[in-house]
Amino acid sequence: MLIRSEAPADLVKLDRWWRDDITRPYQADQLKQWREAGLISLSLLATSDMGEVQGHIVVIDAQMDNNSQEIALWHSPDPDLLMPLLDEAESTLFEFGYTRLKIMPSAEAARAEFAPIQTNDAWWYKQLAAATA
Questions:
Q1: Class of domain 2-127
Q2: Where are the domains of the chain?
Q3: Higher pLDDT among residues 64 and 121, named by residue
Q4: What is the pTM of this model?
């Protein structure tokens, strides 16, 4: 498995992956809208040795006053790919100068150590730090 940044040559492959392989056309449409609006800060793919898409994570440009960045969409049919994709996104965003990620609450977010700042928060956050490995 290889985790890498999205390239222009991946656009058709990603659209087909979201629509046909994952059968989530709404997310494919949302991704296209974000791309056209220039909202994507980071898009990472997990690919097989043969170049087939196995996972995808997107960070949209929703920078907040506190220099947090919103992870808007992720998916992988293999739940074991979520953490490597998220780890790579966190590391890259930290290098870009972001200090915090913001995400919708979910079991996956809890597993990735996101948490609300206050008990009534609709969003969960994670402070970014330099990679330890």
A1: alpha beta
A2: 2-127
A3: 121
A4: 0.83
